[in-house]
Amino acid sequence: MLTIGELASYAGVTVRAVRHYHAKGLLPEPDRDHSGYRRYDASAVVELIRIRTLAEAGVPLARVRELLRAGEEEFAAAVADIDRRLRAEIRERRRHRERIARLSSGDGLALPPEVVAYLDRLRELGVDERIVRAERDGWIPLAARSPERVREWMARKHEQLADPLLVAFYLTLSQALRADDDSRLVELADELAVYITRMADEQGEHYVDDTDLEPPLIPLMDTLAFDTVPPARRLTELLTQRGWTGWTKLERLPPHPE
Q1: How many other C-beta atoms are found inside a 10 Å radius of the C-beta of residue 25?
Q2: Do β-strands 244-245 and 251-252 pair in parallel, antiparallel, or remain unpaired?
Q3: pTM of this prediction?
Q4: 15-59, pLDDT tens digit by residue?
Q5: Cα(30)–Cα(20) distance, integer angstroms
Q6: CATH classification of 4-101, choosing from 3.40.50.720, 1.10.10.10, 1.10.1660.10, 1.10.8.100?
Q7: Backbone angles phi, psi at 30, to 5 degrees
Q8: Distance of CA 70 to CAs 38, 43, 44, 74, 154, Å?
């Protein structure tokens, strides 16, 4: 016969846990010996291990009580169901681990590989890191909202990056954001306006704005960009004076009436 401490040790639980299972009616309390101590037999060890195993698998104690009283077929079916749930949890946790493992790559945590490759290409071209971060933050909600369109968008972006005109646009934008004074921003706004207008005239206005964003996303992404790159707000004001409005969604303003 075993003491409560020995029972707990054999089953791999604490004495407190044994008493808790007694209180919940999961483990019957044995008779006490002449000294007043509980004494347990081998069947109590088996029963306690069953209780511990079910509880550790996340089965609520009320359900544990039901299973302990169930017949063999019902118990086997319940265990199979628990096993399926645990397998699903393991798969989900594995996915979480894979995402956490990508933390070292930074961009890859919340973005698909196609977007990460695009951001890496911007860095290779010498684009200011603040612009890259602004692009990254913008693509996170886009990829989450429309994952089925990511490949289409990225194929178009890589095609555009093969155009020296667009690369020049990004590099001029990088210079504008590094400017220390407003006069330099004004000069570079002139250059940017020329680039944008030339691209729109030669390639079509869709070339300047080709992501077809839902209206609610535009101010959200503008805010993300302005928070990441504060000079972008001033640059937007200057570009508005030169015939273009917006940041995430660039649009040509109608000409002023003469």
Answers
A1: 12
A2: antiparallel
A3: 0.50
A4: 999 999 999 888 888 888 888 888 888 888 988 998 998 888 888
A5: 14
A6: 1.10.1660.10
A7: -80, 170
A8: 27, 17, 17, 6, 56
